[in-house]
Design goal:
This protein is an alpha/beta fold. It is built from 11 helices and 15 strands.
Length: 321
């Protein structure tokens, strides 16, 4: 089978398209992959800058979708069934073999290609809103990086959960993507704090979802309403920010972390519980996944480079066949 391997920790230039043996079943679910998702942590891992390190060579990616080829009899899965998978041993390849708990049945409302980019972003967003921020219907959520994959997922979840969303974007193309994903209000990155204060009548927002970090972090704390919660999803901005905790006293605010990989390490069964709600949302149309940008597997390096240079809009998936 074809696979993308990272052979050097130098970013996108370290990728090579190779022909390798297919993984063995051995009590696992074997899936013929139709597409695999590209996420910002994939870029960080490729440069050795992620919290969790990989030794080269390795196959990047942790999410994919396709068709079940074979499955253990007691797994509840059947050959020919469309599924999404958390392929923590590498997703950018034509076949994966994973534990049954890492396989998620798909409703008819979403294709495997679209589903390839769903798991990491939507499970992370759901975890951030439901379990970490404990969002309540009617609350207002500010979403940074709203034109990217995690941002568009968060906006769709806000709409499905009855939350009012404010999207922070850089440029008209990402503003269009945010609106299409479900944003109630869109503000430009330049002057976003004043715009948010105006929109909320000076009260601020109940929740901030921040995958960016960097120099906007302090203003994110300032944007919180009384008892507001800022949820850290990542550091696309590069710099890991520091919060002066006295600012949290001013409005009884909280700063929380939401890391999917870290969650899986200590609670591997939790995503299956999340998927029950997400599956129902997808089935009844409350949650609509925007079409991803589809790139051939051979062009994975360019896809990562576009993400690094902030040219990517929405979610990118790699077509493997």
């Amino acid at each position: 089978m074809l696979a993308q391997q990272l052979v050097e920790l130098v970013g996108p230039d370290g990728l090579r398209l190779v022909d390798v043996d297919e993984p063995a079943g051995g009590g696992r679910v074997v899936v013929d992959v139709e597409a695999a998702g590209v996420s910002y942590p994939d870029l960080l891992r490729s440069k050795g800058e992620y919290q969790m390190k990989n030794e080269v060579p390795y196959v990047p990616g942790v999410e994919a979708a396709g068709i079940v080829r074979s499955a253990p009899a007691d797994s509840g899965l059947r050959p020919g069934q469309p599924v999404a998978v958390l392929a923590t041993e590498g997703a950018w390849q034509q076949v994966v073999a994973v534990h049954p708990r890492q396989v998620f049945s798909l409703p008819e409302t979403i294709t495997p290609v679209a589903a390839a980019g769903v798991l990491t972003n939507y499970l992370t967003g759901h975890f951030a809103l439901r379990r970490r921020a404990k969002a309540v219907e009617g609350e207002t959520v500010l979403v940074h990086g709203a034109g990217g994959g995690i941002g568009t997922a968060a906006l769709g979840l806000c709409r499905a959960l009855g939350l009012q969303s404010i999207a922070v974007v850089s440029g008209p193309q990402k503003a269009d993507a945010a609106r299409a994903a479900g944003a109630d209000t869109v503000v430009d990155l330049n002057g976003w704090l004043d715009a948010v204060r105006d929109h909320t009548g000076g009260r601020g927002v109940d929740i901030v979802l921040d995958p960016v970090g960097g120099d906007r972090f302090t203003d994110s704390v300032r944007s919180l309403a009384p008892e507001g919660r800022l949820v850290v999803l990542g550091f696309v901005g590069g710099e890991i920010p520091v919060v002066k905790v006295n600012r949290l006293l001013l409005r009884n605010g909280a700063v929380l972390g939401a890391g999917l990989a870290e969650l899986l390490a200590h609670d591997p069964g939790y995503p299956r519980k999340q998927w029950k709600e997400l599956y129902q949302m997808l089935s009844d149309g409350k949650l609509v996944v925007p079409p991803p940008t589809v790139v051939n597997l051979a062009d994975a390096g360019k896809a990562m480079a576009d993400m690094e240079s902030r040219l990517a809009v929405g979610k990118i998936v790699l077509k493997t066949r």
